[in-house]
Amino acid sequence: MTPTITAFERSPDRGRGLARDMRVRWALEEVGQPYEVRLVSFSEMKEPAHRRLHPFGQIPTYEEGDLVLFESGAIVFHIAERHAGLLPDNANARARAITWMFAALNTVEPPIVDLGTAALLERDKTWYAERLPVLQDRVRERLDQLSNRLGDADWLDEAFSAGDLLMVTVLRRLNASGTLEAYPNLSAYVARGEARPAYKRAFDAQLAVFTGASTR
Ligand code: GTB
């Protein structure tokens, strides 16, 4: 059964692949699972019909027959569990890859989102200038730690996994700020993820929504 995901009808990032449907598209492309996309406007996301799929009125969602999922991490995990290619077969290696999925979403993404949110929505606050360096330090602390762990490896735990897929999408949120430039191994890691054919297909598909181009 072909799953259907939801994505922004008009993404604020203008197709730079920063919205969270990107990670779901990439996972589906990695495993070779075709999918449909239903585009939703900001007002549609808050309507009861969409809230039945997503209690918080957001994208992405995932529908596959009777199954409805929300939360990009849970969706990527579902895809990785049901298809080969995103989680290792060995039980311990699989558990470690899942650990990296959680680390990407629970440990690395929050300070990056906090920094992005402050820059976007809190610039006019009196306390912004004081808070900004605190938020930047929190991001740098995580990047230092991640960079030390990655070292000169290609991926976080030997073979590419759903953990890398999520981590790369999380780190990409820093692209515009130039923060990653101080971490050559993390920049190269993100570039390795972006060079994967499945990533490119997913990126082109979400960009086509913005440009109106056809990808099929
Ligand atoms: N924890 C949830 C998940 O991982 O799925 C978070 C989902 C989420 O934040 N969805 C956002 C959304 O629907 C889109 S991805 N927002 C609308 C709303 O809450 O009303 C976040 C996002 C949006 C835009 C950019 N951008 O333009 O750069 C980047 C990230």
Describe this structure in words.
α7 packs across α8. This protein is of the alpha+beta class and 216 residues long. Bound molecules: S-(P-nitrobenzyl)glutathione. S-(P-nitrobenzyl)glutathione binds next to α4. S-(P-nitrobenzyl)glutathione (GTB) binds next to α4.
Helix content: 55-70%
Mean pLDDT value: 97
Structural category is alpha+beta
Bound molecules: S-(P-nitrobenzyl)glutathione
Poorly predicted sequence stretches spanning 5 or more consecutive residues: none
Q: Which series of helices and strands comes N to C?
A: EHEHHEEHHHHHH
The total beta strand count reads 4
How would you summarize the topology of this molecule?
Layout: E1 4-8, H1 21-31, E2 36-40, H2 42-45, H3 48-53, E3 61-64, E4 67-70, H4 72-82, H5 91-121, H6 128-150, H7 162-172, H8 184-194, H9 197-211
Parallel strand pairs: 1-2
Antiparallel strand pairs: 1-3, 3-4
This protein binds S-(P-nitrobenzyl)glutathione.
S-(P-nitrobenzyl)glutathione (GTB) binds next to helix 4.
Please supply descriptive tags for the structure shown above.
4 strands; alpha+beta; 9 helices; 8% strand; four-stranded mixed β-sheet; binds S-(P-nitrobenzyl)glutathione; 57% helix; 216 residues
Summed up:
The chain contains 9 helices and 4 strands; from the N terminus they run βαβααββαααααα.
